[in-house]
Every structure is written in structure tokens, then in C-alpha cells.
Amino acid sequence: MSALGGIDGEKTAKIQQRRNELQTIVEKIGEIESDADEHRYVLETNVSLVVKTLAEVYEREPERTCFRLVGGVLVERTVKDVLSTLQTTMDGVRATCNLTPAH
């Protein structure tokens, strides 16, 4: 009978270990979802503000010089070019964010 008790004890310990692992995974998923929500908020707030500002300048001076950081290098472009690129990038990021499961 003690051999059976040992097997049950092993199974119980294994089940508890799996529950602990599952709990750790659930907590990590929660952290990642929270980070994703924060990134979405920052993206929407900051990028929308930049796009709005560039759109206002675009209405008056589409060929005005504008600088953009690309891969750590500051490049000179026009407002028209930067606005177009930024809108395309923002649309791509939004589409990617929409692929992540909602909680």
C-alpha cells in the first residue's frame, strides 16, 4: 500500500508543479498584455499628435524641410514625404496590434 501512496504523492506533486508553471505563465501573459496596452496608448497619443502637427504644416507648406530619425540616423526629407511614411507605418502598427488577442 505504501507503494501506491508513493505513486499518488508523485502524481500530486507533479500536478502541483504543473499548476505552479501554469500560474507563472498566466502572470507573464498578463504582464505582456499590460505592456501592450501601454504601448498602444503611447503610440496613439504621441504618433497621433505628430501626425496632426505634420498635417497642419502640410496644408501650408508640403515641401517644407522635415527631419526624421531612421535607424539612428537623422535624415532630411519634406513634410509631405515624412507624413506619408509615418501614416503608413502607423497603419501597419495598428494592424499588428489588432492581430494580438484582446483580453
TrEMBL record:
InterPro entries, A to Z: PFD2, PFD_beta-like, Prefoldin
Any single biological process term in GO: protein folding
Positions in coiled-coil regions: none
Gene3D superfamilies assigned: 1.10.287.370
Cell membrane among keywords: no
Record family assignment: Belongs to the prefoldin subunit beta family.
Protein known as: Cochaperone prefoldin complex subunit
Source taxonomy: Eukaryota, Fungi, Dikarya, Basidiomycota, Ustilaginomycotina
Gene expressing this chain: GIM4
